[in-house]
Amino acid sequence: MSLTAAFFAIIRRDLILALRRRSEIANPLFFFVLVITLFPLGVGARPQLLQAIAPGIIWVSALLAAMLSLDSLFRSDFDDGSLEQLLLSPHPVSVLILGKVFAHWLVTGLPLLLIAPLLAVFLGMPNQALGVLLLTLLLGTPVLSLIGAIGVALTVGLRRGGMILSLLVLPLYVPVLIFASNAVTMAATGLPVVAQLNILAAMLLLALTLAPWPTAAALKMSVS
Fold first, then answer.
1. 119 burial class (0-12, 13-18, 19+ CB within 10 angstroms)?
2. Which of 7, 54, 57, 164 could form a disulfide with 125 if both were Cys (CB 3.0 to 4.6 A apart)?
3. pLDDT tens digits, the chain, 224 residues: what are they?
4. Domain boundaries, given as residue ranges, for the chain
5. What is the C-alpha separation between 178 and 35, in angstroms, rounded?
6. Could you give the CA distance from residue 119 to residue 35 in angstroms, rounded to a whole number?
7. What is the CA radius of gyration of the chain?
């Protein structure tokens, strides 16, 4: 099997497994929707305030939803032994891991991207900011998955690694949160957002290039 065929086979396998365990798809999405819909109840029916903080609400909710789904990235493979087979593959492990991360994003990040405009309208976000919101989510959520994969790889062998995983990845998520929410806020006020989008694109390229290597090394240490 060629490397390209193996890459797409990993994606297909993980998508099939995710469809069999639909709760892994539903839980982060329900969490994302629940947090955003409950927030107006906490701050009150104040349209101007909700409109001002809508970018932060959406991005913090997306970040927490991404963290909620991280543990499923390698856990089932570690439990059933298929992770060892992945590491013994003749193909580069980093490329196969990239396929798993992409499948994970399709299952968890893409649904957030699709539902976010509806929730943004619910919070009163201006129409001119919706396109920038989608673009920041498109650039930022894959970065969250790629960075999170490193943390999951380091903690996959631990029984209760959830708290350690949060401590590892949350500080690395902060730059994405800052630039993405700031881009949406500036777009809502009509200011240019090219700089923020370029930084997010650079983060994505760096994560795509660098993240698979430490993830593969961490998985080998966790399995051995």
1. buried
2. 54
3. 688 888 899 999 888 888 887 777 788 889 999 999 888 888 777 778 888 888 999 999 999 998 888 877 887 787 777 888 888 888 888 899 999 999 999 988 899 999 999 999 988 888 889 999 999 999 999 999 999 999 888 888 776 666 788 888 889 999 999 999 999 999 988 899 999 999 999 999 999 999 999 998 888 887 76
4. 3-223
5. 19
6. 11
7. 18
Query: What is the DSSP secondary-structure string of 156-208?
Result: TTSTT-HHHHHHHHHHHHHHHHHHHHHHHHHHHTT---HHHHHHHHHHHHHHH
Query: CA-CA distance, 93 to 79, in Å (whole number)?
Result: 19
- Look up the pTM and report it: 0.90
